[in-house]
Structures are given as C-alpha cells and as structure tokens.
Amino acid sequence: MNIFGHAISLPQLYGQLLIGLINGSFYALLSLGLAVIFGMLTIVNFAHGAFYMMGAFAAYFLLKLVGLDYWWALILSPLVVGAIGAVVEILFLKRLAGFDPLYSLLLTLGIALIIQGLFQNYFGSSGEPYAIPKQLGGAYNLGFMFLPVYRGWVIVASAVVCFGTWLVIEKTKLGAYLRAATENPTMVRAFGINVPRMITLTYGFGVALAALAGVLAAPITQVRPGMGADIIAVVFAVVVIGGMGSILGSIVTGFVLGVIEGLTKVFYPEASNTVVFVIMAIVLLVRPAGLFGRAA
Amino acid sequence: MTATLKVPAASAVFAARNRRANQIALAVLVALVAVAPFVAYSFFVMNALCFALFACAFNLLIGYVNLLSLGHAMFLGLASYVGAHAAKVWGLEPVSAILVGVAVSTALGFVTGALAIRSSGIYFAMITVAFSQMVFFFCLEAPFTHGEDGIQAVPQGRALGLIPLSNPWVLYVFVAGIFLFGFLAIQRIVNSPFGEILKAIRENEPRVVSLGYRALRYKLAAFVLSAAITGLAGATKAIVAQNASLTDVSLSTSVEVVLMTLVGGMGTFYGPVIGAIVVVSMQNYLAQFGEWVTVIQGVVFVACVMAFRRGIVGELAARAKISL
User: Fold this and answer.
1) Which of these, A140, B150, B223, B294, is most buried using a 10 Å CB contact count?
2) Considering the entire predicted model, what is its pTM?
3) Assigned fold of A2-286
C-alpha cells in the first residue's frame, strides 16, 4: 500500500494499531478517572498525571524494596496512591469547596509540581526498567501477527476495569447515590448519606484508577518521573473531545483516539503527536460540549 | 435608588485616593526600572521585565475576564521563535522582527481563542493546555525552529536601522521602553469602556448579554490582546537572550506565568510584575538546588491557593483599601 507517499506494510499497520490500542487503554483509564472526579467534585484534577507516575513508581518500589511482585503491585499501588489522593482531598480540596473551581485546579497543579519535582530530584529524567511479569511473557501467534501477551493483557485489563466502573456507576445502588449526590448533594445528605466522605472516596478512587494505569504502563514505558507530564495534555484533549461528565464517553473516546493516533503513525507520522489536538479543535467547532457531553 | 444617589460623593473620594495611589505606584515602578540595572545584572533585569510583561498580559485574562489560560507559553514561545527567525534568517532589524513575532502570536491567539472562547472555567483551561501542547509539538518538529537546539546567536542589530542594541545600556532602555509601553497599554485597556465591559462579564456574564453586548466577542478580543502582548514579551525576549528555545513554549512556562500572577495578585496591575520578579529571582538564586525549585514552586502554589489568594499586591491594596 502507498498512502501520502509512505509505503505501508501490513505488519507495520497491525503493530501501530496495537500500540494505539495500548495507548488508548491508558487514555481511557486516565480520562475515566478525571471524569469520575469531575462528576463528583466538579474540578479538573491536574495532578492526575503525577498520580499516574506515582502508581508506576509504587510498583517499582514494591518490587525493589519489599520484594512484592507485579500482581501485588496491581492491588497495592492503586490502594496506596488512592489513599494519598484521599488525604490530599481531606487536607486541601475540601477547604476550597466554596471557592471558584479554578482555585482547586491551581491547587492540584501545585501538588503535581511538588510530586514531580520530588521524583525528578531522586531519579533524574531517566527511566527505571520494570520487567514484564513472567506469567505474561512471550507472545501469541494470531496468524497475521504476533501479539505480546503482556500487551494483550493491558488492553483486556483496562477494558474490564473501565467497563466495571461504568457498571458500578450506572447500574448499582452505590452508583445511584453517587449520581444523586452529583445532582443535589444537600438532598442526598438529608437521606442520611455521608456525602463529604463519598466525595473523598470518589477522589481517591479516581486517583487509584490513574495509579492502576501507571502500574499497567510500568513494564511498557519504563518508570520515569516525566511520564505523567507527557501524557496529561493528551488526556485533557481526550476529555474535551469526549465531553466532560460522561463516563462512557471518556472510555470510548480514550480507546478510539489511541487507535487514531496509532493509525496516524502509519499513514502520516509527522502528525502523530498533534492529531489528537487537531481532532479536539474540530470537535470544538462542531460540538463544543464534546461528542458525548451535554450542552452546558 | 436612594442608596445609589448617595454613593457618588463617597466613590469620588475613593476614586481620587485611588488615582493618587496609582500615580505613586507608577512613579515607583518607573524609578525601580530606571535604578534596577545599576544594582542588578542588567540581563537578569531585562529577562525579568520580559516575564513581567508576559505575566501582565496573562493577568489581563485571569484578572479581568476570569479566564484561566494554562497554555499561554504558546504565544510567548512561538513569538520568540518567529522573532528570532525574522532577525536571524530574514535579516530584519529588531523592531520589525519583534512586530512579525507579535503578528504571528496575535494570529495564533485569534485562531485558538475563537475555538476555545465558547467554553469557560476549567474547560477553557484544559483546551488551552491542549492547544499549547500542539504548538509545542509543532515547534519541536518544524524545520525553522531547529528542534531541541533552538535558534541560537540571534543578532541584536540596530533598532530601526539606527540604534545599536548590542550595547547593553541601549538594549536596556529599549527593553524597559517596551515593558512600560505594554504595561501602560494593559492599564489603558482595563480602564477603558471596553475594559469596563470585560469586568462586567467577569461579574455577571448573562446580565451583560441581556444588556445587548456580544460577550463572546469581548472575551475573544481580550484573549487576542493578551496573546499579542504576550507575543511582544516573547519576541523581545528572543532579541535580549539572543536565542529562542523549546522551554519558552513548554507547559512549565505556562505554569510559571500562573504562579507569577498568583503570587503577585490576580486582577491587580502591579501584582504580576512583583510576582514575575519573585519567581524569576527564585529560579535564578535557587538554580543550584536543581529540581527543588519545582518543589518549592509547587509549595508556593499550594500556600497561595490555600491561604494567600489575593497575592502580595492584592493583600497590600486590600489593607490600604485601594486598588492597585
């Protein structure tokens, strides 16, 4: 095949599609976390990238210092980082509840700087390798291509977590409380539900999703202090494209944009870094509230 | 109605006091700019002046229209690249080179502003982050910016073909003049009828719309003006530093200008100037501590947001019951 002057081979196409799906998994997990937090707290968590990076580092520390492997990290790292998120919410964000949401954004921006600066201090800008767990080594032969098992696992795991989160929020009683508290917190409190605690837990959960994405990414991208800052702008664009406050929208948009980015790498590599932003500009022109968003 | 009838007398006193305070503040600022190169390294001061103008332009949006742009480095950085390119490759004299930089950042401001302005609040902030990242990648990959190397050895030349800017003293007067011009232009904009409408939009946008104003156009105009003045700061910076690099277009620069404005005081004329001096000095004197500078900036951010929302100048003005 020859498109835009680039010779395209099928293995290359499948390879980039796979990378696109992997990146899409991270975009989906991260933008889902942002959407969950936004839905409940109506703030944008600028520290999301930093928490994603912390998730990867938590996995690295668990292995290096405690000797707990990937599978432990998969559970413990989101718990630990999520707990840190909850503390941040209690100590800082709660006190800004009555102010312009821009202050909360600026606060999370400051927290992102602190976290990132600390990690850069101790680890520089270079990455630390994190080995693929041995149970997930090797590759499947799909006939038309080889699929490394770990990459397949990342896609499946993040799709399951995303879908599970969507189910909990849309189909369970807990989710109903959450949605109700988003609409009218005072009324929900009147029914005897501890809304402030629910807000703390929601923030912690959104942060935990970012940390989980970090653990999943660790064996693929290496563990680097800058990994969060690199991805956050794209995730913001994904959220704008999908529309704020839509859980399903953020998941679908994340996966789809990852794939589009991967395809762009094949057909027009010069634009692969900017294609998401170009799509965002077009969406803003056509549907300012985002593809899945309701008009403000 | 009776209440509003009584106000003019009180407000006239307040306005007179305010005018005097602002005259004094302006005189102090001009004196400081005049004295600064004798007490500090003049290139450091010129760099600080460029960032101060940048912060003032940013403050025009956050302070008077309540629009938080988290991508303002795209205007600074792109104008810096274009100014440097115009001076070095096209061989333009510095004033024309700077004007070309301003023209490009103004155009970028119009395009991104037209797309972003329909949203507000955190949405607007996220969109500006995304656009600035797009400009960052453009600058990383476009041939004329020389990627990671940036544009080096930009000639300072002769302003208008006459005034030699390679002389540091002449250069200082040139940069100080540009800074004061931009600073006064922003004051003029904010105090004009146009500025009053901007402030009205900040306070109550639906009401302004119901009075028949096209609020979006006013917001877009403010955004474009802010982009243009930021471009002025960026292109001037390229002539001063004789280079243009990726740092100026990066997200961290966008974050720094927020910090400058927050520390100095959002919605005050003099706050961004003070904030810029504080942040630039911090970078300069704490440079030996490496990444701790980032940590300290983060701590200052958190401290300002939690306990010191008015900033230095805002706090002083509130105590003295004036607006600076």
Assistant:
1) B223
2) 0.90
3) ABC transporter involved in vitamin B12 uptake, BtuC (1.10.3470)
